[in-house]
Amino acid sequence: MSPRSPSVNEELRRRSRERILQATVELVDAHGYEATTLGDIAERAGTARGLISYYFPGKRQLLQAAVHRLMHLTLEEALEREPRTEDGRERLARAIDAVLGLAEARPTLMRTHMAGILQAEGFVQCEEQQRLAFLLRDTVTRYGSEDVDTDYPLLRALLMGAVVAVLLPGARMPLARLRSELFHRYGLDWEAGAPPDGGPPGGAQVLGPSAGPQGAAQSSKSK
Q: In 3-state terms, what secondary structure has residue 33?
């Protein structure tokens, strides 16, 4: 048997890594972080336990990479779903809904993730996180930002805050209210993106301060 080519080996490594990340998401979502061992993940992924340590320095870093991959895939699917659009406001609405929807759909996983990134090591700078960051930056750019280096971190911070508010035990805020506030800030129509059932809070049509990023910026300055 002839040896595998470098491209084949690279593809096998990519698939193995993705199986590990997917197994991590599934197990932590079902059983929680503490109850999930690296051995469990290796078994679910169909790989050797030592291979996980080859790719990731520890379980916390593995979890962050796994959740960032899930967030990237979820966001990518939302942005590219039919009917496809290049409209920046619609894409931003879809991005907000994708992130809030993930918190609502997978509370155990996302609560564990948020707890992890608030620890001393913070964000893990891995390829999954970089792909997620690229999509969010691109969304901010298409929305019409004139200062992406400022507006992208702000959007990220606002989304993180909203996710925490969705997940906070004992003081959880309704997703529709959080969505309404974010849509108002960015001047987005309530019907954009993937609006939740029941309409906007209070039954009123929720529109932002203007039809685009300039109005949103002016609203922010006036507060």
A: coil
Task: Please tell me what DSSP assigns to residue 198.
Answer: T
- Note whether 100 and 179 are within 8 A (CB): yes
Report yes or no: 17 and 55 within 8 Å, Cβ to Cβ. Answer: yes
- For residues 52 and 41, the answer to whether their CB atoms sit within 8 Å is yes
131 residue type, one letter: R
CA pair distance 206, 199, nearest whole angstrom = 9
User: Residue holding tokens 């994708």?
Assistant: 98
**Residue 54 in tokens:** 């080859």
Do residues 207 and 190 make contact, with C-beta atoms less than 8 angstroms apart? yes
- Dihedral sign (CA 92, 98, 104, 109): negative
Q: What predicted TM-score, i.e. pTM, was given to this entire model?
A: 0.87
pLDDT tens-place values along the chain, 223 residues long? 456 677 766 787 889 999 999 999 999 999 999 999 999 999 999 999 999 999 999 999 999 999 999 999 999 999 999 999 999 999 999 999 999 999 999 999 999 999 988 886 777 788 999 999 999 999 999 999 999 999 999 999 999 999 999 999 889 999 999 999 999 999 999 999 999 987 888 755 545 444 455 545 444 443 3
CA dist 223 and 112 (Å) reads 33
Contact 187, 208 (CB under 8 A): yes
Q: Give me Rg for the CA atoms of the chain.
A: 19
Two structure tokens written together for 45: 């992924």
Whether the CB-CB separation of 207 and 187 falls below 8 Å is answered with yes
